[in-house]
């Protein structure tokens, strides 16, 4: 497989070198994708990517043999050694016109495309989860609240990494425009990510990542939660431990993916990795009134690992600062 070239894995057809303009993924966003990091010929978080293949195929009613596909992906990873594999799965062309598809085996058939891209996957620094998994740690950066919003979707579409990502496209465009303006003003941009709301007004994720956060004790004391006392005590007990392990200090929260956002691979790795710790991750919505009370914030995805933030700029211009990792 030549680097940077797309190949069709299914249906197996050596003559199929290009995607048709009639492809349903292009026409309707009828499909999903996943992006996998590869180090030393091994796919990172491979079990989680397989879970995504199975769950997404089930949600979109696509016929997919995940075991057979994974065997092929591992072969390409071994050839690549270091870089990224991007997989796109779309519904095969249908006999019926328009959006519909036939209620038969052919209606659930897939086209599967793969791209191999050599690149460096950052592993210089990493954090350890209680289950022993190591997660890449990126240099610290800053974040900003964006005005772009992402869609609220019904089940089973909420949380899927579907091919319809126009809301993320526009949000990423807004973030890049902010960075470009900073360069024009001779300000060295340190903005690493933008925080996004959904249409209901809840802050959900980054433009290309999921978000985790901690709250100050004062904010927690305002919340009538049954978990408040335990969380405050956990934060206090960890306050003087230094930065030996950023992930296991204090109580982390992450927004729900039940109505918007993408349930990312790295998000689930972290949730599972901390599930047996003293402070398992709590699924909790992030609202406007929480933002001034944030005490820690990081973004994450399967390629970059954890992206810790030192501050978040709010719409008001106020900057909420966090301790460095």
List keywords for this structure.
single chain, 325 residues, alpha+beta, seven-stranded mixed sheet, 16 strands, globular
Indicate the proportion of strand residues. Answer: 25-35%
Per DSSP E runs of 2 or more residues, the count of β-strands stands at 16
Structural class: alpha+beta
Alpha-carbon Rg, integer: 21 Å
- The sequence of SSEs as H and E is EHEEHHEEEEEHEEEHHEHEEEE
Q: Give the integer mean of the pLDDT values.
A: 88
Notes on the structure:
The structure is a single chain. The protein contains seven helices and 16 strands. Strand 14 (294-301) and strand 15 (305-313) form a beta hairpin. The protein is globular and about 55 Å long. Strands 8, 9, 10, 11, 14, 15 and 16 form a seven-stranded mixed β-sheet that branches. The model is unreliable at 228-244 (pLDDT under 50). It has helices spanning 24-28, 46-59, 66-80, 166-184, 217-222, 228-238, 265-273, and strands at residues 6-10, 31-39, 42-43, 83-91, 110-118, 126-128, 134-136, 141-150, 191-198, 203-206, 210-215, 253-254, 282-283, 294-301, 305-313, 319-321.
Structure, briefly:
This protein has 325 residues and is of the alpha+beta class. It contains seven helices and 16 strands.
Strand and helix layout:
Elements: E1 6-10, H1 24-28, E2 31-39, E3 42-43, H2 46-59, H3 66-80, E4 83-91, E5 110-118, E6 126-128, E7 134-136, E8 141-150, H4 166-184, E9 191-198, E10 203-206, E11 210-215, H5 217-222, H6 228-238, E12 253-254, H7 265-273, E13 282-283, E14 294-301, E15 305-313, E16 319-321
Parallel strand pairs: 8-9, 8-15, 12-13
Antiparallel strand pairs: 1-5, 2-3, 2-4, 4-5, 6-7, 9-10, 11-14, 14-15, 15-16
């Amino acid at each position: 497989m030549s680097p940077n070239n797309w190949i069709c894995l299914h249906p197996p057809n050596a003559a199929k070198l290009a995607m048709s303009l009639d492809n349903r993924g292009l026409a309707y966003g009828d499909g999903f994708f996943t992006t996998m990091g590869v180090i030393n010929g091994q796919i990172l978080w491979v079990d989680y990517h397989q879970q995504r293949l199975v769950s997404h195929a089930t949600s979109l009613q696509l016929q997919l043999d995940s075991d057979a596909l994974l065997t092929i992906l591992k072969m390409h990873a071994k050839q690549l050694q270091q870089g990224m594999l991007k997989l796109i799965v779309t519904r095969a062309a249908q006999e019926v016109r328009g959006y519909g598809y036939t209620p038969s085996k052919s209606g659930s058939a897939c086209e599967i495309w793969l791209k191999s891209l050599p690149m460096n996957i950052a592993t210089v620094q990493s954090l350890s989860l209680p289950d022993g998994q190591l997660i890449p740690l990126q240099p610290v950066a800053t974040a900003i609240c964006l005005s772009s919003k992402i869609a609220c979707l019904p089940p089973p579409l909420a949380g899927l990494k579907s091919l319809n990502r126009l809301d993320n496209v526009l949000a990423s465009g807004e973030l890049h425009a902010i960075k470009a303006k900073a360069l024009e003003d001779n300000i060295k941009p340190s903005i690493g990510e933008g925080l996004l709301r959904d249409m209901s007004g809840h802050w959900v994720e980054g433009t290309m990542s999921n978000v985790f956060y901690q709250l100050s004790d004062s904010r927690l004391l305002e919340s009538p939660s049954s978990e408040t006392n335990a969380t405050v005590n956990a934060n206090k007990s960890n306050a003087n431990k230094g930065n030996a392990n950023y992930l296991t200090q204090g109580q982390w929260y992450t927004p729900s993916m039940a109505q918007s956002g993408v349930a990312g691979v790295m998000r689930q790795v972290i949730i599972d990795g901390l599930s047996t710790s003293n402070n398992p991750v709590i699924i909790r919505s992030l609202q406007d009134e929480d933002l001034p009370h944030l005490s820690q914030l990081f973004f994450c995805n399967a390629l970059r690992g954890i992206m810790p933030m030192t501050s978040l700029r709010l719409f008001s211009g106020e900057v909420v600062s966090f301790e460095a990792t």
